[in-house]
Write a structure and sequence with these properties.
Layout: E1 4-8, E2 15-19, E3 21-24, E4 27-30, H1 35-40, E5 49-55, E6 60-67, E7 75-81, E8 83-90, E9 101-107, E10 113-116, E11 120-126, E12 131-137, E13 146-148, E14 166-167, H2 169-172
């Protein structure tokens, strides 16, 4: 039996990944990534880059971020400390689910993750202080391909679960979906 379990979300190609956590008297072990198991589920994530981010304050809002072609990337996002409300938004113009979103609570206790395919924006709000996130990316960061949509876009209408306490100027200045060129 695999150690990764793939649960469909409301959007095709976006999956919540649930992990089997092994615990004993020494502590625990959890598989963060397995290319074979992803492949068996029909998901591609050749890891080109891995990142770690942290947010000190509850209510921190990040996103919505993605990279344009030819650097579009799939992501596997895991919260390894604290809790977040994690969001994927379909930004592929012409897709039947364009502009729709799905969200899951990710937390260190469950060690669950969200698989986000290319062409989807990603963002999250912290539900606790001292959040640490690990990202596996299928493409390396390319500054010329960096893109995003404002997380407070009324056309997407994300119901952020709490008061926004911290947000970068960069994220606050991201355009609304109606004002951007197609991403994918």
């Amino acid at each position: 039996m695999g150690k990764l379990h793939f649960e469909p979300t409301e959007l095709p190609d976006v999956f919540e990944v649930r992990r089997t956590v092994f615990r004993d008297d020494r502590g625990g072990l959890v598989r963060l990534l397995c290319s074979d198991e992803l492949g068996t589920a029909g998901l591609a994530l050749p890891v080109a880059q891995s990142n770690l981010s942290w947010s000190a304050r509850k209510g921190t809002l990040r996103g919505l971020h993605l990279q344009r072609r030819p650097h579009a990337e799939a992501k596997l996002v895991t919260c390894i400390a604290g809790r977040i409300w994690d969001v994927a938004v379909d930004l592929r113009r012409g897709a039947p689910t364009f502009g729709r979103w799905t969200a899951r609570i990710l937390c260190a206790k469950q060690m669950n993750a969200l698989y986000i395919p290319p062409g989807f924006g990603h963002g999250f709000q912290t539900l606790s202080d001292d959040v640490i996130m690990v990202y596996f990316h299928s493409a390396s960061y390319a500054s010329a391909a960096e893109a995003g949509v404002n997380a407070l876009d009324p056309d997407i209408a994300l119901p952020w679960p709490g008061t926004i306490t911290v947000r970068s100027d960069r994220d606050a200045s991201l355009p609304f979906l109606k004002d951007v060129e197609p991403f994918a």
